[in-house]
Hints:
single chain, about 240 residues, mainly alpha, 9 helices, elongated, transmembrane, transmembrane helix, membrane
Amino acid sequence: xxxxxxxxxxxxxxxxxxxxxxxxxxxxxxxxxxxxxxxxxxxxxxxxxxxxxxxxxxxxxxxxxxxxxxxxxxxxxxxxxxxxxxxxxxxxxxxxxxxxxxxxxxxxxxxxxxxxxxxxxxxxxxxxxxxxxxxxxxxxxxxxxxxxxxxxxxxxxxxxxxxxxxxxxxxxxxxxxxxxxxxxxxxxxxxxxxxxxxxxxxxxxxxxxxxxxxxxxxxxxxxxxxxxxxxxxxxxxxx
Length: 239
C-alpha cells in the first residue's frame, strides 16, 4: 500500500479533532452544549437563532467525523501484523470502529435537522434534541469494545519488534474505562453527570480526542518505521 495513503489515514485522527471541534465552535455547541435541563423554548431558540451558522457548524462536524473511518482502517492494518493468521481482534475492532463512526455521525445529523426548520414546534425540537444528545453520549459499548480489542492486540503482540508500543495498549484500556460514566446521562438533567456535565460530556470528549490524536501520531510513526529496511537507513518519507 502506498505510504502516502497510510500517512493520510494516520493524520485523519488529529484532523477529525480539529475540524469537528471547529464546527462545534461555529455552531455554538462549545464551550457549553445545550443542557438537558433547558426548556423547549430555550432549546428551540438555540437552533433558531443564527440557524444558518448552526447548520454550517454541525455539517462541518459531521463531515469531520467521517475521517475516523480511514484511521480505523489503518488501525486494522497494523493489528493484522500483531495477530498474524487469526486476526479476530482485528475484525472486532473494524466492526465496532465502524459502529462508533455511525453513532457519532447520526446524532450530529439529527442536530442539523433541528436547525433545518427553526419554526418547528418547540416540543418537537426538544424531543429531537434529547434523542440526538442521548444517542451521541450513551451508546458506549462499541467504543469500549473497540478500545479493549486494540489494547489486547497491542499487549499480545509477539513480534520481535512490537508494532505499537505497549503503553498504547494501556492507553486504550483507560479510554474505555473513561466512557463508563456516560450512561448516567439518562438519570440526571443537571450537574456533573448530566449529558453536558464534566463527568459525561467533557470527560468522554477529552478521552476520545486524546485517543484520536495519539493513535494518529503513533500510527504515523509506525508507518514511517515500517518503511525502513532492517539495519539500513532510508531517506525520510514525506508526511
